[in-house]
Amino acid sequence: MLSFSTFALFFLSLSSLLHAKSSDGDSVLVVVEEVHQKDFTIFFDGLKEQGYELTFRAPKDETPVIVEHDVPAFSHVIIFASESKNFARDITPQSLVELMSGGTNLLIALSQKQTPLSSLASEFSLILPPPGTPLVSFFPERKDPPSVIPIDAPASSLILSPKLAPIWFSGVPHALGSNPFLIPILNAPAESFAADSDGAADALVDATEKGGEGLWAGSQLSVATGFQAIGGARATWVGGVDLFSDKFAKKEVSKGVKSGNTQFARDVAAWTFQESRVLRIDSTTHHLVNTTTPLEQYTTNDNIVYTAEISVYNPQTSTWEPYSGITDLQLEFTMLDPHIRTALPAVPGQPGKYSVTFRAPDRHGVFKFVINYKRKGWTHLHSSTTVALVPPRHDGYPRFLSAAWPYYAGAISTSVGFFLFSAAWLAGESRESKKAKKAQ
Amino acid sequence: MPKAFPLPSDLSPATVANTASLLRIVALSLISGAAIASRLFAVINFESIIHEFDPWFNYRATRVLASKGFYEFWNWFDPTAWYPLGRVVGGTVYPGLMATSGVIYNLLHALNLPVDIRNICVLLAPGFSALTAWATYMFTKEMKDESAGLLAAAFIGIVPGYISRSVAGSYDNEAIAIFLLMFTFYCWIKALKLGSALFGTLAAIFYFYMVAAWGGYVFITNMIPLHGLVLILMGRFTSRLYVAYSSWYVIGTLSSMQVPFVGFQPVSTSEHMAALGVFGLLQIVAFTQLVRSHVSSKQFQDLLFVALVTAGLLGAVAFVGLTYKGAIAPWTGRFYSLWDTGYAKKYIPIIASVSEHQPTAWPSFFMDLQFLIFLFPTGVIMCFHQLRDEHVFVIIYAVMASYFAGVMVRLMLTLTPVVCVAAAVAFSSLLDTYVDAAEPEEEKSSETSGAATPSDASSASTSKKSKKEKAAAAASTPGNALTDLVAATAPTKKGDAPKAKGIYGIDTRLAVIGNAFAMLAFFVLHCTWATSNAYSSPSVVLASHNPDGSQHIIDDFREAYYWLRQNTPETAVVMSWWDYGYQIAGMADRPTLVDNNTWNNTHIATVGKAMSSSEEVAYPILRKHDVDYVLVIFGGLLGYSGDDINKFLWMVRIAQGVWPEEIQEPNYFTPQGEYRIDDMASPTMKNSLMYKMSYYRFSELFGGGQSMDRVRNQQVPKVGPTLDVLDEAYTTENWIVRIYEVRKEDLLGRDLKSANAFAKGKKRKRSKPVSKRRPIL
Q1: Distance (Å, whole) CA B339 – CA B353
Q2: Is residue B625 part of a domain?
Q3: B574-610: string of b/e by CB count within 10 Å (b at 16+)?
Q4: Who among A181, A211, A297 is closest to B775 (CB)?
Q5: Residue B474 within a domain
Q6: According to the model, what pLDDT value does residue B334 have?
Q7: Of A236, A116, A93, which Cα lies nearest the Cα of A174?
Q8: Where are the transmembrane segments (chain A) (predicted)?
Q9: CATH classification at residue B641
Q10: What's the rounded Cα separation, in Å, for the pair A274 and A267?
């Protein structure tokens, strides 16, 4: 019995390992020319092994459609058909953006040519060099042509695995615009530049004469860039489709050292397809100190407890786990402007729970509890809860104020005085009438 | 004694008195019926619906009061108004109206009459107009007699100047306030006449009710002290005045401070200082009288006089000093605009932008009061004849109210009661003179007949009246053409000429009385016409006529509000110009940015700025205020002139008051200084959000033909404006209301203009990377 259950457990964990790891669904549409389909078998088989269901479609095929009844039909879309100038009618830059607003993740490879995808890239604040100018580098010295470049993985990266071997790259670089949603994954080497591979030397000479003006060069350029869109969807732009190819995956960087392309492709796909660095807010509550039920409105100067529960996606087990690792989470209590902005620290001993107690401002109005956590590489966390902050009720003020004693004294003395006066008046009246009687 | 026509002589005085009393009751109930009935045009022509703008808030507040009880209402914080500032309704509202409806509602339900709260609200104003007629009767009775009272009641019952604010459905504070005003004045006059603390207290209680019901209570707060002051200056200080004023002021002020919205204003603002000052003055004068009655020394009295003057001066200096230091709040802008009609336009455009705060046009006096406006001066002059204390009151009231009615259209309402009273006094004097059967005798002055005239139910105690007439005759000073004219209405002048003045025969009588009754008949016709045609429109529902003459209802407002109610989430914030705030809250039940309770000028200016600036400037404002929908009123298709483009300059002006660098009014005019919306419109105008929202896709409606704005009578440009930050969500049948949805931020972080251009398939210009290093030279 015991052995059976351990076996079952083992089997379960195995199946979970094999099953889809994305938090977002496991259907993938791959748009690739049929002839090139087998160039990426390592990458595609890796995805399949993880449990993704890959559907292939040539760029000019009409089916399967990517959007059916206004609902995206796939959770992820890979576009490796970078060379093709024409796509089927339903794949346009506009429809791809539409897909992203529906939550679909994109993995797109660019080419040197001017394609619909290069105009889409500019919508993502990626700035491409003129057509036909791939990234070239003459360092380090090697037998390969200058446009096939080994690029060292960054020392620390949010997306890539640590200690990655250099990655073979061939394609166009891109400069990054000022869009804060861009996440550079792999930068071009410092000594590389974009130029026509035949006239690379001439381009350098020209640029030198102009003092470096107009040369697409240096480590500011990126060859692989992630994009975290507002709705939660992710997109990754890679400068050349060869990076994912079997050829580069097998190619050795130096004697006996295999290139990091396989792992790089794996990491990029993991990030793009919402496996890694995926956070979510499970719930938020607010209540008065020493109570538990949330109120629709609070009184000014109340002490309010705000609690958020945050989970991170664990691709190993395909489950959401409470996550207490965020150290710079903030809570804003906002009416037009944040009236209170305070750290929202994790509660020790309660995983995934973040809580703060604060005193509401002395200002009535409609306030919002706002969590707005946007960090590069991570899913954006946004939560907004509206509550009203009202002035105290008519009987909610202190009843007797020591400062009001002059008024109390005034009221009491007037009352007493009136009483005495009335008494004296009545008494005087009776005496007078007695006197009057006596006089009579 | 000669008589112009025979009178029954075998009636006992008791019978006459009883009959007169019965006729009075019948007449008063008929007047009440007429007053109520003529106000029901709105319900019959349209439906039982709350009118206009402010009543919608009152109605909403009343519903809260009826469903949740008074204390919840008192503590009601409305998070949906003035989003996100919210409104402390309990502390910023005059609760009298809602409390009245709530009491009636609970009373009816206690009697197992399950009347809908809406019907109570709709019919409250007509009901109270009947009470106003009664209060005016009581008030005028104190001025002259019962016959004048009945005339005054009939006048106020149907006069358009009052009906304009009290038709069924016009559920506003004025609906009950005019009754309270008249009844407070009646109690005050009664208290003054009798020196009665009871009536003084009653006046105070109704004053409290008035304070709780209408901001116009300040009129009473200043009228009664002014009356007191004038009486003191006329040397008419009496202990009756002292008792009446003191009891009114002390109880009235203390109770008025219980209204949360008023709070400590009665002791801290300039508007209320006159009442306090006169109260102090009365104490001093009373003290002087006391001392004078006990001390005989002339020197001491002089000393006392000097001391009093010094004390008065010191008080005035202290008042000015305190105002200067800020302990007493200075006059509010609304009051400055009462003295200087140009003030508001210069400094507080938000007050000037309200049409009912504009100076009154001359024709509206005739429209609202008809022949009463001609009788009004006569009645006031007649008050000078006897000039009893209460007549002084009417004279002051007439002068003040005439001035205010000239300054502000809405204050016509306060003028109307005194016009009715004065006109009734004049008219009943005329009738008294000409209906009276007595003819002047030779030699001695006429004694009026002992019997009342049957045709006129009013002249009850004729002996009393004749005394009055004598007094009037005695009071009139000869040598003035006007007084001569007036004196002619009095039967005789005592011992003046050998041949007595007077009216002989029945023909002269019939001529004058026939004329007078014709005037009354025309008055009734005019009132009915004005009520049914001018003052009974709910303005929520518009009426037009089909070519065949049948009525066509234009119901765009409710269509739009119900669309909002049915199709948007409950928390969707709607931005519109403040005029429509109460209606959106009442009918669509959605949070609004600004509404007709214009307490926060900056917030209104923010909306004005959003409406009058370009999309790029407006969008951050919209997002910051969580605006989900923007609502504009557009009358260009139908020719509805009260639309937002016509109000647009006020939005610009109000925004300019807060952001003079960013919004400038001249930019919205053509170089020739014209306000245009066609091809020649200024670029600022064309780029403003309001213009774009109004004319978005308007020219498409004409299918390439000439698109005409029927309000401005200008041609709209063929190529209409484009909108990037807004999506058209709903446009009503006649395009009067247009609703736009505010777009969310672009998911790729682009600005919406380029995102929109991309979605339409426009190519973006190639951009170059930002050079981060300086070229080496």
Answers
A1: 17
A2: yes
A3: bbbbbbbbbbbbbbbebbbbbbbbbeebebbbbbbbb
A4: A211
A5: no
A6: 65
A7: A236
A8: 405-428
A9: 3.40.50.12610
A10: 11
Contact residues on chain A for B766, CB-CB shorter than 8 A: 122
Determine the residue type at B634: F
Which residue of chain A has the CA closest to B775?
A211
Shortest Cα distance, chain A CAs vs residue B762, angstroms: 10
Beta-carbon separation of B86 and A101 below 8 A: no
Residues of A in contact with B770 (CB under 8 A): 175, 177-178
Number of domains in chain B: 1
B-chain residues within 8 Å CB-CB of A101? 747
Q: Which domain holds residue A385?
A: 288-390
Q: How far apart are alpha carbons A7 and A10 in whole angstroms? A: 5
For residue A140, say if its preceding peptide bond is cis, omega within 30 degrees of 0.
yes
Read off the pLDDT of residues A14-65 as tens digits, 9 standing for 90 and up.
444 445 578 888 899 999 988 888 889 999 999 998 889 999 988 888 888 8
State the average pLDDT for chain B: 85
Q: How confident is the model at residue A219 (pLDDT cuts 50, 70, 90)?
A: confident
Asked if A385 and A361 sit in the same domain, the reply is yes
- The 10s digit of each residue's pLDDT in B107-137 is 999 999 999 999 999 999 999 999 999 999 9
pLDDT tens for each residue of A309-337: 999 998 888 899 999 999 999 999 999 99
The candidate with the shortest Cα–Cα distance to B689, out of B654, B715, B651, B658, is B651
Q: Which residues pair with A254 in a beta bridge?
A: A257
Q: What is the mean pLDDT of residues B566-587?
A: 93
Cα radius of gyration (chain B): 32
Residues A374 and A238 in one domain: no
| The two structure tokens encoding residue A90 | 């339903």
Q: Which helix (H) or strand (E) holds B667?
A: none
Strand order in the sheet with A297-299: A297-299, A381-390, A365-373, A330-335, A337-343
Are A366 and A237 found together in one domain? no
**Is the predicted pLDDT of residue A376 greater than 60, yes or no?**
yes
> Do A71 and A206 reside in the same domain of the chain?
yes
Residue A406 belongs to a domain:
no
Range(s) of the domain holding residue B698 = 554-759
Q: What is the number of domains present in chain A? A: 2
Q: Is A366 within 8 Å of B775 when comparing Cβ atoms?
A: no
Alpha-carbon distances, residue B168 vs A276, B44, B318, B529, B762 (angstroms):
67, 10, 48, 16, 57
The answer to whether residues A237 and A168 belong to one domain is: yes
d(CA A273, CA A278): 10
Nearest CA in chain A to B754: A123
Kindly give the residue spans of alpha helices, DSSP state H, lying in B159-272.
160-163, 174-194, 197-213, 217-233, 239-256, 265-268
Is A393's Cβ below 8 Å from some Cβ in B?
Answer: yes
Q: Is A334 found in the same domain as A231?
A: no
CATH number of A156's domain: 3.40.50.880
What is this structure's pTM? 0.85
| Cα-based torsion angle of the residue sequence B677, B678, B682, B683 in order, rounded to the nearest 10 degrees | 100
Query: In terms of domains, do A258 and A359 share one?
Result: no
**Residue B459's pLDDT band (boundaries 50, 70, 90)?**
very low
Does A342 lie in the same domain as A246? no
B14 touches chain A (CB under 8 A): no
Residue A369 has pLDDT above 90, yes or no: yes
- Whether residue B631 is contained in a domain is answered as yes
- Residue B703 maps to a domain: yes
Interval A111-165: pLDDT, tens:
888 888 888 888 898 988 888 888 888 888 888 888 899 998 888 888 888 888 8
Question: Which residue of chain B comes nearest to A118, CA vs CA?
Answer: B766
Q: Could you tell me the CATH number of the domain that includes residue A341?
A: 2.60.40.10
Residue B768: pLDDT over 70? no
Asked if B84 lies within 8 A of A336 by C-beta distance, the reply is: yes
CB proximity A319 to B under 8 Å: no
A256 in a domain, yes or no?
Answer: yes
